[in-house]
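Z., the sequence and structure:
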Amino acid sequence: MKLKSKAFTISVWLIVIFLTVSCSKIAVKDVEDRYHLTERSEFYDLNQWSFSGRLAIVDAKESWTANLEWQHHKQEDRLKLSGVLGQGSLVIIVTEQAVILDRGDGKTLQSNDINAFIEQQLGVAIPVKSLRYWVLGLTNPDKDFVSLADGFEQEHWIIQYLQMQQVNKKWMPRKLKAMRDKMRLKLVIDHWIL
């Protein structure tokens, strides 16, 4: 009797595991199966997209993690970082000419020197205008680059795509890593909207 009960219990658990795995909404593949820079040019034409995920940044002086919600529209990028340095949220709005930072205290800061301002405010140097392309698996079309097997090198950064996920029959980055000197930026994208 106990043997039948154990066999039944094991069968139920195997069915639950099978259903959980087979009902997964996201198809995820290793990069060598789905990342090809030369096949991604259609994504330059995307005027609007968004994603939510998690960001980790480490360099010689700083390290922090945050949840990230990124909304891209033709005229601006809006990044909302929450849990930054154990604090609330921070909103960064990047346009062609300026960057605006809102810490949620009713005061906003603004600068025309986008990369220097972000480094001053966050303590880390992140090329946000290029990152806007990198998250899509693209190179910044205004900068030179060198292709690599799993990504590319641009602006002295090495960009590697570790996993891709299927979104509306298109393969989008799920995990990527950007490295420059002692700086490491890791991004895991949980949900894309195209």
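Confidence is low (pLDDT under 50) at residues 1-24. The radius of gyration is 20 Å.

Let me know what you think.
H.
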